[in-house]
Amino acid sequence: MTDTPELIAVGLGPGDPELITVKGLRxxxxxxxxxxxxxxxxxxxxxxQIATPWIDQSRQxxxxxxxxxxxxxxxxxxxxxxxATVMQQExxxxxxxxxxxxxxxxxxxxxxYLWRELRAAAPDITVSIIPGITSFAAAAxxxxxxxxxxxxxxxxxxxxxxxxxxxxxxxLSDFTTVVLMKAGxxxxxxxxxxxxxxxIDHALYAERVGLAGEFITRDLRTLDLNHRPYLSLxxxxxxxxx
Amino acid sequence: MTDTPELIAVGLGPGDPELITVKGLRxxxxxxxxxxxxxxxxxxxxxxQIATPWIDQSRQxxxxxxxxxxxxxxxxxxxxxxxATVMQQExxxxxxxxxxxxxxxxxxxxxxYLWRELRAAAPDITVSIIPGITSFAAAAxxxxxxxxxxxxxxxxxxxxxxxxxxxxxxxLSDFTTVVLMKAGxxxxxxxxxxxxxxxIDHALYAERVGLAGEFITRDLRTLDLNHRPYLSLxxxxxxxxx
Lengths: 242, 242
What we know:
The structure is a homodimer.
Chain A: E1 6-11, H1 22-30, E2 33-38, H2 46-51, E3 61-66, H3 73-93, E4 96-101, H4 111-121, E5 126-130, H5 135-143, E6 154-158, H6 165-174, E7 177-181, H7 187-196, E8 203-207, E9 215-217, E10 232-237
Parallel strand pairs in A: 1-4, 1-5, 2-3, 2-4, 6-7
Antiparallel strand pairs in A: 7-10, 8-9, 8-10
Helix pairs in contact in A: 3-4, 6-7
């Protein structure tokens, strides 16, 4: 047991367990300990649910890390530090670990924050990242919507932060394809902007792509704007739809 | 043989065969016929090279489709139509086909054009898409560069079309993370803009990610600007680098 402890952040993709990469799958199967984020309300970790087919619970140790669903860094920072401490201890004993997360680890992922704390606490741990399929790529694939062709530009924004109606309209005017992640709470503003710009028939709404309860529609006129799930996105495309 | 012919476009990811999804791998292994694009100069298809570990040539038929590397639709359209005709004939005999391509099928992929021709020629063929890891997600993962955190926006542009120096500077000023795909021919303009905006130390250059000859560097000051490969990209990030 003299080898360096190793942690690999694995992007699981949007939900369908088969949308993990072969590399990610092999990293999970080679791991001694599997870390998964869990919101504090005690729900099963969505990441852990997705990875279940690839985990052998008789052989592999599972450690869930409580991470609050909040933007308040006063709450988040201590949670990341506590998680980093747990990871450090576990990796001291069980050399090879993976950290599971939805989508791609570097696109609005939680791992970057954890990594920072872990590096400060335990610089000897080797950290690497395996990319994952994003929810918007999966939604586009299910629906056959091109993201970009030829000279087109793609922009990805976190809709819940895009609270300025004018700025949102400019984005939708300036770019061929706009991906609005975490659309839930912003849905009324998004639908309003799409009506204003006559783009309501150029959009796709997707919720829980690849998970139980998946819902995908091109008819944003009839969306229930009071239903605002976190795992939701809107793709708006000015160019050709297939 | 009464079942409907089926074609699945499989995103192979950027180059490393293990960055395919499990779903993509299974689609390839279940296929009777495997289509791969090939530039007309007779080079081996890069897509086919990547997928080689997953193909059983004793059992599966491989058909390469000549597609010229040009923006001239006068040349491209007949090539796509010819490819669609070949696909239609092959799928009439060998029911299950996959079309291989690098990265993600819907992000600057060739499949969308082929699909259009195929649907016109043979609307009875069932077509579906399996998403793939993009080269920029893989480059970010190798280098540990966050693409987006919290309220940040990501923009992806085809650098070879971004020939207006002012427009390029505005993009680099307005967005936290800018991904410049197909950077090769645009490298001199990109490096010039990065110097102008004091962002030269906030960029990553990646060439042939996951393929033989992979080259990734954060030192864009010393890049050979005369070497301009097609499979290259630059990620510029104003925000925190890890």
